[in-house]
Amino acid sequence: MPPTIPAGFRAVAALVKPVLTATTRRHWSGEEHLPRDQGFIAVSNHVTYADPFTVAHYLYDQGFAPHFLAKASLFEIPVAGKFLASLDHVPVHRGSAQAREAVEAAVRLLERGDSIVVFPEGTLTRDPEMWPMLARTGAARMALAHDVPVVPIAQWGAHELLAPYSKRPRLFPRTDVTVQAGPPVDLDEFRGRPLDIEVLRAATDRIMATLTSMLEEIRGEKAPAKPWDMRRDGGGR
Fold this sequence. Notes:
- One of its GO terms (molecular function) is acyltransferase activity.
- Pfam families: Acyltransferase.
- The chain has 237 residues and is of the alpha/beta class.
- The chain has a single domain, classed as 3-Layer(aba) Sandwich (Glycerol-3-phosphate (1)-acyltransferase).
- 37% of the residues lie in helices and 16% in strands.
- It is built from eight helices and seven strands.
- It has a seven-stranded mixed β-sheet with strand order 1-7-6-2-5-3-4, with helices on both faces.
- β3, α3 and β4 form a beta-alpha-beta unit.
- The protein is globular, with a radius of gyration of 17 Å.
């Protein structure tokens, strides 16, 4: 069984969940793939600022208290920042000496059996059709270094609730939101090998290919042959 959901999470859920329930039609599936005997990294595609709410809603409904790796700037917001920290969400200081602290904090959560949620793209997708982009390697590094499973969670529909980059939700009519977990990504061939850029890139690409394939099934469409790369294709949108 996953760790008991702390009171702080239950209090937040009591406020947020009724809003999500009233404004969305939820299509949840794949919950049998969520490990209940150890911590795991949940990875998801990222289209809108509403994604953390819909993924958290899904995991909470399955009995998990989802912990997010989030931009450090969010923790600097008065009151809200302290609240995020009190729920054991993890601030990420990109490109600084403090980046290691985020990994150490996330590993402590995993070791006690919690789940952490990572959006490997690091930002909202810039792909014009909202397919997953080329991702950062942090989730793969953490999974391989600490031998924890990576569970892909593909989601679609939250962008109808809150358009990309918008801060004004469309609450009615209710939005169909699909969230589907898949089996842990098979990373066995990468385990025990030096964590050089080649290994991390290959493992990350496998994680994202799995997510993209799941999203193709949900959307009933085919993704581009090559994922959007901001260095190659630009910022997009």
